[in-house]
């Protein structure tokens, strides 16, 4: 009995060093999968093609363009902050990162592979992948589950660089806010009510409440036949395909917002509050990329949030300028690196 226990304890402890090595190897495998255009149907588009590290893991476009120039319906969010999110996509239709990471490979308007088997086949043909699989999992079997863990581990490993606002809050030297920025913060948290949804708590501050709200942006476009749209979503579910295949292909279905995921009428046209981390560098804005500049996005927000709460948020030109100055402190560029 005691011997059996000792053996179990020993085998549980022994691989600690190996565990670290294989965790690193999984991240390396995940990074290669993320950056490899060979895993798209035309060999030209990787995950990083739409989530480019140089563009804060976005693509700088209003809506994403997939293989063969296929036009998507949504603005690519950063994947740098997946650890701060409690749901994924603008409509929160997934709640586990693991359920998200393989979807783009087979979405026809993203990477366009026919199915999971096509993905497995492409990975299997590549010697470097087999080597990485051995380091990560002990043998070179290509299994979907392994690719899921590797990609998720890579995304979670992306460092969350503090914003200047975070550094200011931690009283770091050189990170103090200017008078205008401080006035902007006071407006953001006070009179303008922005922090109700773009939450300032947490270190680093998440700048989202992870909840869903109505905007009015683009919602006028939900003119189509909702019953027909729901039929399309049902059909995908019957085929056990992600509803993202319809959401990213049909602008009308995309405008249903969270409703497409929950079917609750209150969720019609509701979207997840985006984090404002790095917001000054991630134009264009909103779920459909319909707003070009940060100043314009702030104006729209003031307008729609006033409508939603039934009480105008009135800011002078000077106050709007201060609010914008504050939004620029939500940037992760450290002064030293500038
Ligand atoms: C064609 C461009 C494109 C490609 C290629 C692409 N993505 Fe995305 N990604 C998007 C868009 C657009 C969204 C938002 C979709 C939505 O909200 O419905 C998104 C959302 C995500 C999210 C959710 C982020 C959040 O904050 O909710 C993750 C995670 C993600 N992608 C990972 C990946 C991975 C992993 C790959 C490669 C396997 C990949 N993406 C390939 C455009 C792309
Ligand atoms: C009731 C919750 C709520 C409040 C209050 C709110 N926002 Fe938002 N914000 C959102 C949601 C939801 C979106 C996404 C809307 C969309 O895509 O249609 C958004 C989008 C944005 C964007 C675009 C970000 C991006 O990456 O696309 C900016 C900038 C922004 N808000 C700033 C502000 C400012 C400044 C205030 C205060 C005046 C404010 N918000 C108040 C929920 C809110």
Q: How is the secondary structure organized here?
A:
Blueprint: H1 2-13, H2 16-35, H3 47-50, H4 103-106, H5 116-124, H6 127-137, H7 144-157, H8 164-169, H9 179-189, E1 212-214, H10 226-238, H11 244-247, H12 251-254, H13 259-262, E2 270-272, H14 294-309, H15 317-328
Antiparallel strand pairs: 1-2
The chain binds heme C (2 copies).
CATH topology of the largest domain: Cytochrome Bc1 Complex, Chain D, domain 2
Number of domains: 2
String of helices and strands: HHHHHHHHHEHHHHEHH
CATH homology-level superfamily of the largest domain: Cytochrome c-like domain
* Residue windows where pLDDT falls under 50 for at least 5 positions: 334-338
Task: Return the average pLDDT rounded to an integer.
Answer: 92
CATH architecture identity of the largest domain: Orthogonal Bundle
Strand order across the largest sheet? 1-2
Distinct compounds present: heme C
Radius of gyration, whole Å:
22 Å
Q: State the share of residues found in helices, binned by percent.
A: 40-55%
Number of strands: 2
- Tell me the fraction of residues in β-strands, as a range: under 5%
- Distance N to C terminus: 62 Å
Largest sheet: 2 strands, antiparallel
* H/I helix tally: 15
CATH class descriptor name of the largest domain: Mainly Alpha
Shape: globular
| Sheet/helix structural class | mainly alpha
